[in-house]
Structure formats: structure tokens, C-alpha cells
Amino acid sequence: MLDSTNKKVALIIAPLASFLTPFMSSSINIALPSIGEEFSAGAVLLGWVATSYLLSSVMFLIPLGKSADIYGRKKVFAYGTVLYTASSLLCVFSTTIVYLLIFRILQGIGGAMIYGTCIAILTSVFPPQDRGRVLGITAAATYLGLSAGPILGGVLTQYFGWRSIFLINIPFGLLVIYLVFTKLKGEWAEAEGEKLDLAGSLIFSAAIIALMYGLSLIPSRQGIRLSLAGTAGIVFFILWEKRSAHPILNIDLFTKNRVFAFSNLAALINYSATYAIGFILSLYLQYIKGFDPKSAGLLLIAQPIIMSFFSPLSGRLSDKIDPKILASAGMGLISVGLVPLVYLNAETSPLFIICSLMVLGLGFAFFSSPNTNAIMSSVENIFYGIASATLATMRLVGQLLSMGLVMLILNINIGNEQVTPAYHGPFLLSLKIVFVIFIILCFCGVFASLARGKSNKKGLAG
User: Fold this and answer.
1) Quick one: 420 exposed, middle or buried, by C-beta within 10 A (0-12, 13-18, 19+)?
2) N or C: which terminus of the chain carries fewer CB neighbours within 10 A?
3) If you ran DSSP here, which 8-state letter would residue 196 be given?
């Protein structure tokens, strides 16, 4: 009876939590021009409103995922939801761009606590034969958040101001907090008794900060030096973890488990090539096409609606068909959907953009759920927390790299200037360069996805 209740509760809180964070990400993209107008912020600084959240999430994800395995996944998830909800409220009262960035960092830490445990809790509660189905439902909730973000975020921004998009997170957060503290039973701490590698955590966090901040400063010498230092720091982190008695990231999961390694690589490439699409298209639609936030949101909803509709189907299929086939096909579709976006200009019709976004949505749906199922089914239960956190880290590092690439190209072409008519030409050039690079990345991602081998659901030995 308890097991049945836990399944029901987990299948409520996981989709709810999975709705919150992507809703925030997609709605904030629509609100960026309004935030820029209030705080007189240029395109690059606005990019940091999204990137500061991602950066803090990436810094803490791996350590918090390991902490969840040691101290309890429910505990980390619960307190993460509390922090995420409280920081959303703080964002409402931001009086300067600096305060907004600080509160976004706190929100990112809370998000990391949610990302690093949400999938792990589902995987702990449901047996292998049901995971594709429940992961598909959770993915659909994620994409529903992405769907609701642009349209609801656009409406809220247009009629109630950009602060209202943070306010709407709060009732959802409070509902999750109530359910997890009162209804969800169990703690799931299979690595209880292990020590947390604090030194490894600090090395990882410092390397990520140096790499991402450095990318934002390129082409300056300081930016190049910081980027190289960050890359060296990641290499040092890997070497440190291989020698650590209690690593926060078990390197054997990558070196001895082909499915785990290449599935995570595919996720990294996928998000590196796709995350910033919403950011740059939001700027394009509002600055170049002259759309208001509501209209821009209505157009961008095409992609996540398709994702929401097809994700449960792809999740169920991944319980019966090798996830490698489905995920690779999905990545190929994403490559196809990106090609038309290279040709965007001031005269491009909305229907042209919608059709491209629908193809992208279909590709995402057939990549995400099967890829997640392959990762979580390839490890033993003692690694569920760190596997969930590693996947989330690949997603967020990919998102960071995607934003970092866009910010780099915008910085080179227009600097930290607002996108006025005088800068429309350089902005459109930046957009074309970005989408060409994204297509190349996705094409490489197809081969990374195919290289993973057959999913065997046998854990580390895979």
C-alpha cells in the first residue's frame, strides 16, 4: 500500500517540479526585452539573467546529487523546492539588475537540488519496466512548462509586468512542498555513510565559473585566459576524482559504462545546440519583427506543444525499442528543423518559423525521454542520485555553452549595445552564425547517440 501511495505521490510531485523550472526558463526569455528596458541593459547583460541561473545550477548539481545519495533524495528535493520558491519571491522585489542576478543565482541553487533528485526519486520508486512511461510523463510536464512559459509569460509581461512571471511560480512551489513533506514516504539514501568530497566540489565549481565567465569576455585576453583556466580545471577535477576515495562523480561510470557515457555526451551536445534557440528567437521576434511579448510567446509555443504531445509516446516506445534508435532519430530531426532558421530575416513569415519549430519539437520529443531512460537504466540503484545529477549537469552545461556561444557571437558583433534599428544587421548576422554552428553540433550529436551501443539495463558493467 505504501509503495502504491509513493508511486502516485512521486508521479504528481516529479511532473510538477519538472514543470516549474522550464516554465521559468522559457518565460524569462520572453520577458528579457522588458527587463532590459527597465534596467537599461544590453543584449549581453540580459543574457546573464538567464546564464546566472544556469551557472549556479551547474556549480552545485554534482555535489548536491552526491549529497542526495548520501543524506537522502527526498530531503534534498524538499529543501531545494523551498529555496527555489523563496528565491522566486525575492526576484519579484528586485530593484536593480544586480539584485535580480543575485536572486537568480539562489534560484539556480534551488533548481539544482530539484534537478539532481527529481528523476532519481522516480527511478527509485518505479521498476525498470515502468520507467520509460513515467519518464515520458515527466518529460511531457517539462515541455508543458516550456509551452506555458512563452504564452503565459508573454501575457503576464505585457499586462502585469515581468515580475509577475516569478510570482506565478510560488503556488506551484508551495503545492510541491506540501506534498513532499506530508505525503511522500521514504528517503532513498543508498550511499549513506560515504563522505562528501568537498575539495572535488570546490574544484568543479571554480572550473565552471572560470570557463563560463571567460567565454562571456572573449575575444579579450582575460576571457581567453579564464576559458583556458576553466578547461584545465575540469581536466584537473577528473584526475582528482579518479584518485578520491569518495568521489562526487564516479569516473568509472564514464570509462566502464559505454551506454552511460555516450548517452550523457549526446545530451550535452543536444542542449548545447538547442537551448539558446528560445533566447535568440525571442530577441529576433521582438526586436526585428516588432512583435509584442504576447505575440512572440504565442509563436514560440509551437515547439514545446509538439514536445508535450509526443514525449509520453516516445517514453513508452523506449521501454520496447532500443533508446539508441529513437534518440538518434530525434537528434537527426532536430538538425533538419534548424536548417530553415539560418535563413531568417526581417521579411520571414511567422508560418515559416512555426513549421521549423514543430520539426524541432518532434525531434526533442524523440530524443529526450529515450535518452533519459537509457541513462537511468544503465546504472545500479546506488548511483541513481549521481546519475540523475550527471544528466542534469550535462543538460545545464549544454545550456550554459549554448548561451555562452550566443553571448560570445553577440559580443563580437554588437557588443553590449541594445538591439536598436542601427544594430539589426549585425544581430541578424549573429543569428545566422549561431544556427549554422547549432546544425553542425546536432549532426555530430547523431553519431554520439549511435555510438552508445545497445542499452542493457545492467548497471555499471554496461
Assistant:
1) exposed
2) N
3) P
Count of CB atoms situated within 10 Å of the CB of 139? 29
pLDDT of 17-28, one tens digit each?
888 877 887 788
Helical spans, DSSP H, in 93-168: 97-125, 128-160, 164-167
Separation between Cα atoms, residue 135 and residue 368, nearest integer Å? 9
Distance CA 213, CA 224 (A): 10
* pLDDT computed for residue 437 by the predictor: 93
In 32-123, beta strands by DSSP E: none
One domain for residues 137 and 171: yes
One-letter identity of residue 171: P
Give the pLDDT mean for 31-37.
Answer: 85
- How far, in Å, CA of 79 to CA of 82, rounded? 5
CATH code of the domain covering residue 56: 1.20.1250.20
Q: What digits encode the pLDDT tens for the residues 305-357?
A: 888 788 778 877 877 787 778 888 888 999 999 999 999 998 999 999 999 99
Coil vs helix vs strand at 18:
helix
* Grid cell for residue 181: 513533506
Contacts of 425 (CB under 8 A, 6+ apart): none
Q: Of the candidates 383, 366, 316, 308, which has an alpha carbon nearest to the alpha carbon of residue 123?
A: 383
Domain annotation covers residue 65: yes
Rounded Cα–Cα distance for residues 77 and 65 (Å): 10
Q: At what angle do helices 424-450 and 276-283 cross, to 10 degrees?
A: 160
Mean pLDDT of the region 420-443: 88
Q: Which three cell numbers stand for residue 209?
A: 565559473
Nine-digit cell string for 29: 526569455
Cα gap 335→446, rounded to integer Å? 9
What mean pLDDT is predicted for residues 244-267? 82
Examine residue 192 and state whether it is found in any structural domain, yes or no: no
> What is the count of structural domains for the chain?
2
- pLDDT for residue 86: 94
What residues make up the domain containing 110? Answer: 2-185+248-461
